[in-house]
């Protein structure tokens, strides 16, 4: 899958929406970044990367042989996503994430529903419904059940007006090495 032109609001977030909703059903949201996300990171609910506002291209890949190392530089990041049967994983902007967790107990759809009226007033010529916003602004990442290490690659082509381009290689694992999980996110700025 490829996503073009994603606005991160400063943090690229892959979020297990289902587990996030369960987590915030009885937890308060902590705005400290990245410390406030530590429990979510260690439980495989979120994977975060600090960025500028925009990302040019995001590619999800399951076959590492399809990643051309002449074009992509491996940046590491052992952190993982934990996906159970029926879980929904999405790419979410930092702004949407904080709103859904703090004001809607981790419920992305409730956050979008609550913002539809104002979104459509501000974009009167291009009104959107919840399904369109989910598809365009919070793209779904189709991950089968399991624990998925997220290997991060960044484009070596920086150009004159560089916006980062990422390839994420999802590697299924049976065992998570807790010692290798990092609570300090990767950082990519212009």
Shape: globular
Q: What's the CATH first level?
A: Mainly Beta
Strand content: 25-35%
Number of strands: 11
Helix content: 10-25%
How many angstroms does the end-to-end distance come to?
24 Å
Task: Specify the oligomeric state.
Answer: single chain
Radius of gyration: 16 Å
CATH architecture: Sandwich
State the major sheet. 6 strands, mixed
What is the overall pLDDT average?
87
CATH superfamily: Competence, DNA-entry nuclease inhibitor, ComJ
Number of helices: 5
Low-confidence stretches: none
Q: Could you say what the CATH topology is called?
A: Substrate Binding Domain Of DNAk, Chain A, domain 1
Number of domains: 1
Please trace the helix and strand order, writing H or E for each element: EEHHEEEEEHHHEEEE
Assign the structural class, choosing from mainly alpha, mainly beta, alpha/beta, alpha+beta, or little secondary structure: alpha+beta
Task: From the structure above, extract its key features.
Substrate Binding Domain Of DNAk, Chain A, domain 1; 5 helices; 190 residues; alpha+beta; 11 strands; six-stranded mixed sheet; globular
Fold topology:
Elements: E1 2-7, E2 11-16, H1 17-23, H2 38-42, E3 46-51, E4 54-61, E5 72-76, E6 80-83, E7 89-92, H3 94-103, H4 108-122, H5 130-137, E8 140-141, E9 146-155, E10 165-173, E11 186-188
